Amino acid sequence: MNQSITSVLVANRGEIARRVFRSCRERGISTVAVFSTPDAGAPFVLDADTAVHLPGTAASETYLRGELIIAAALRAGADAIHPGYGFLSENASFARAVQAAGLVWIGPSPAAIDSMGSKIESKLLVAAGGVPVLTELDPATVTEAQLPVLIKASAGGGGRGMRIVRAVADLLTELEAARTEAASAFGDGTVFCEPYLETGHHVEVQIMADAHGTVWAVGERECSIQRRHQKVVEEAPSPLVERTPGMREKLFEAAVAAAKAVDYVGAGTVEFLADEQGHFYFLEMNTRLQVEHPVTECTTGLDLVALQLEVAAGGKLPDTQPSPPAGLVGGAAIEVRLYAEDPAAGWAPQTGTVQRFEVDGLAADFALPVRERGLRLDSSVGAGSAVSIHYDPMLAKLIAWAPTRAEAARSLAKALSRARIHGVRTNRDLLVNILRHPAFAAGETDTAFLTVHGLATLAAPVAGPEEEKLAALAAALAASALRRDQARTDGGVLGGLPSGWRNLRSQPASTSLAGPAGEHRIRYVLGRVGLEAEGFGGAAVVHLSAEKVSLEVGGLVRSWQVAHYASVAGTVLEVDGDGGSVTFTEVDRFPDPSMAVAEGSLTAPMPGAVVSVHVQAGDTVTAGQPLLVLEAMKMLHTIGAPTDGTVAELPVTVGQNVDVGMVLAVVDAGERRD
């Protein structure tokens, strides 16, 4: 029986809320957002027709409070709730409460969520149907011969509540950490244990089903490149499936069988772990839309959110899935997740204010393809957006589609490397290096990709040492131009002259800039005869302003865009060029001695909350020994001792919130009390 949907509340935040709003607007459906206190003014809130404030900061106070969300829907006049992904999207009790309130639940039945939402129960269910699964292990009886094992949250996803254990002695500690993380992220601390396969391919099948018995296996995706068990690069179709005869048919058959076993309705994803020969094992079924759904949309031309709305209203799918529109979608699509994190620093999440977020050449924002190649951006942030410690660090997804996988990878890497992303450190360079790696081009994308090819190499700046050196010169010249412009604006005498100009030449101008490769001291003279820069040969200025610098170097004209921002660390210069982007900070010529930290200090790598402290002042510690644990963005981060020594200071306590750079502990390497 069809049920009209006129207004949808999205029980989520960020880019998924904006994505759902897009499909709703196109169909004349009103939109309602709910938002926590830190999210006030976020782009998704401004996108909605109506927004309801959920007072509080933590997810447990806001986005995980089902009763508050339902009350908000009723208050705003919504007649349906879309859960997005994460938070309450796979919570059967919430789905039942939504239906009990007389609202349409845009998702599968609570019974199906119960059956498939639990990774433990779903494995038993599909195993009974003949689908191969990995055997669950009892943590109490795990032996050295069974290692390594994987501890995994039964509810939710996104890598939270997951731990690889390689020593039996670590099992109990890691079990407790996984339970804590899962409870914080999903409100359910249930975890289980299974064998861990060091290498494999993460392949998943997108399902769409209606209430009339029709089930589509829409297509498969490969999501093997992951960090901390969370996907980083996703693509459709799967390179493994493409080169393995008969594998696609078997995957689709297993996925459809799993959906029919629970009378599934709506969008869902059946996930498998496969080996190089095409043998696969059921991992789980996600009873919701997936983060990576755009690559399926860009290769099929189907609006998966629109289909969710139609099916939830009682609509019937065609018996056969429509063929992709000729000339409107690509043969391949690749998505990368842009995170606010530093891969080279143990994936430490980053916070701050996004100063600029611009990607050239976009063909779509959250929308379906309108030609056979292009770029799509699904973003949760814009200029001025605050990135806090409270939620997932994903800022955006950038998707490229094209007739071939090689073209999609090439265009995506180019767009990403040239994007202007300022104010927050991201994993952008890692993504570009992955997309340009020969192994990726060959489709060799198993779950050990980052380990096999070396995180240090893959996370290295796209702008190498020589490129960074040139970018530093461009930054120094742009900073000089900015000071000249400010002098002119302030009415200074001879404001058009170069900064630091003297009637009689005395010495070069000097600027020190801190960059990824270290400190750059730029010494130059810019006068009547042009540019004379120490260490840069015959570099000549072609164009110079505060925002753009063009130099002729070695017979080639190179250009950089430069942005200037003030920060607590000093003036920041963001330099974007064809060879990559580099962030510099002007080095204070006369630093305040009181700002220096003591030798052996461990400072907070990110803002967060102290959840546990394992030592006391005066304790003897060894290098790498855990001292305390921080929670940031729903992940736990262990802070270890940098060297053997004695804990000289421990100024933090459990429950305390800390800012980046705050001293957490001081380890004195010169004194040990054995």
List its traits.
674 residues; alpha+beta; 9-stranded mixed β-sheet; 8-stranded antiparallel β-sheet; 39 strands; 25% helix
What would you note in describing this structure?
The chain has 674 residues and is an alpha+beta fold. Helices cover 25% and strands 31% of the residues. The strands form 9 sheets. It has a 9-stranded mixed beta sheet, sandwiched between helices. It has an 8-stranded antiparallel beta sheet with strand order 26-25-24-31-30-29-28-27, with helices on one face. Strand 15 and strand 16 form a beta hairpin. The radius of gyration is 27 Å and the shape is globular.
Radius of gyration using CA atoms only: 27 Å
- Quaternary organisation of the protein chains: single chain
Based on DSSP secondary structure assignment, what is the total number of beta strands?
39
Major β-sheet profile:
9 strands, mixed
- The unreliable regions are none
Q: Kindly report the spatial arrangement of strands forming the biggest sheet.
A: 13-12-9-10-11-14-22-20-19
Secondary-structure-derived class: alpha+beta
What overall geometry do the principal axes of the alpha carbons give?
Answer: globular
**Helix content estimate:** 10-25%
